Amino acid sequence: MAGAQQKWDLRQCVDYALQNNISVRQTDLQARFSELNFIQSKAGQLPSLSLGGSSGFRLGRSENPTTGVLEDNNFFNLGMQVQSGVSLFNWFAIKNNRESSRLSWEADKAQTRKIMDDIALNVAVSYLQTLLAREQVKVAAVQVDQVRAQLRDTRKRVDAGILPELNAAELEAQLARDSASLITAETTAAQLLLQLKAVLNLDAAVDFDIATPPVDQIPVDPLAELQPEVVYLTALQMLPQQKVNRLRIEAAQKSVLAAKGRLYPSVTAFGSLSSNAIRFKKEIYNQVLTGYNTTGARVNAGGVFFPVEVPSFKQGDNIVGYFRPDGLGRQLNANFGQSVGVGLNIPVFNGRTARTNLDRSRLQVQQLELQLEQGERQLKQDIYKAYTDAVAALQKYEADKKALTTAEKSFSFASKRYDLNLLSAFELINSQGNQQRARIQALYSKYDYVFKMKLLEFYKGQGIKLQ
């Protein structure tokens, strides 16, 4: 995305940082986890439904699933069932759990926005620091050019015998010092640009540069519109962190209600449909008469008692047919069963789990309320401090501008006196140094004032903008 021909403004830098920052992606993943929890908790209000089936072979003596009789037979069995259940009333535990999950999801989304705002602020700070460093490079370069021009003019006058060699030597020494200051300023600017790359999570080897808007063109709201109490009240409603704290409290309160509902009896309804069938083929053998056996009973026939006998058979060796059960369809229809009912669950004792969960939920609410109170107090302190700093920065900037004007006039007079040989090179260099320090201080004060104002605008929920 970055190229040597393209210079990024603050908006592009912030957009790139938000798209590539690992913290943003991590918090976004957490929000997606919370969304899944909410979807799951919402589905918990719906009836459950399950379909099941089984099939297999049974060998040897086993129970016939269609008759319940133990038989010595090998057969294939098939079973199918449908089960469903629904919570009829649980003191709104499921509903409150769903609301708690929804509020937690909203809190995590707001937390993502909070992280994004923090990153945008960090990018803006690094961006402004880089702009300030570049302005300092320009000031140092102007200083070097001025001293170099003075040295050329002085050298001519020394060669003409108008000024002593000492004047040229002092200016050469000053040029060396100013050149070193320029190199230091350029190094600092390069390091800050590299630091900005790190903030953007941009590879250090990528060609990258930023747009340099004149500091005087950076829009700043009037200080009168950024009164601390007004900014604070706006921040309570606008800043994501405050929204995160409030949402987490609401989610915890719903968790308390859900935990409380689990202490009371719950009513459920259930129902099921089932059927089964078997399939086998059993041989039918012929029967061979082996004789007659008396039963011990007698019958009276004309006064004569005769014993009662029954024929006795044994299984022969010839298969005369096969026995098979009805078809699967008829069996499934004949064995089709239904059940429906209502269940009542009364929690009596469960190791104090439910009561402990309720107590934990209540403590969690208290902890979050304390965090909210602490956060609001800290926010108010930060805003009032930012306002005080902005007022002080404005006053210092105004004073430094006056000091710069005075230093420039002083240097102008000194230059004229030097041209008339009424001032030594040392005195000229001293006057020029005063002007240089005043110029750098005024520049620093200007950027410091802009940043302090941008921080107040950030607290007011306006974001960070330089254009």
Please, could you describe this protein's structure?
The chain is an alpha+beta fold. The chain contains nine helices and ten strands. The protein has a four-stranded antiparallel sheet with strand order 2-5-7-10, with helices on one face. A two-stranded parallel ribbon has the order 1-6. The chain has a two-stranded antiparallel ribbon with strand order 3-4. Helix 2 runs antiparallel to helix 3 (93-159) and helix 3 packs antiparallel against helix 9. It is elongated and about 180 Å long.
What attributes characterize this protein structure?
10 strands, two-stranded parallel sheet, 4-stranded antiparallel sheet, Outer membrane efflux proteins (OEP), 2 domains, elongated, 467 residues, single chain, alpha+beta
Q: How many domains in all?
A: 2
In CATH, what is the class of the largest domain? Answer: Mainly Alpha
Low-confidence stretches: none
Structural class: alpha+beta
- Average pLDDT rating: 88
Number of helical segments with 4 or more residues = 9
* Largest sheet geometry: 4 strands, antiparallel
Helix content: 55-70%
Radius of gyration: 46 Å
Strand content: 15-25%
The CATH architecture category of the largest domain equals Up-down Bundle
Task: Produce a short descriptive summary.
The chain has helices spanning 10-20, 22-43, 93-159, 165-200, 228-238, 240-261, 328-334, 353-419, 425-459, and strands at residues 7-8, 48-58, 61-63, 70-72, 75-89, 209-210, 266-279, 282-301, 304-323, 337-345.
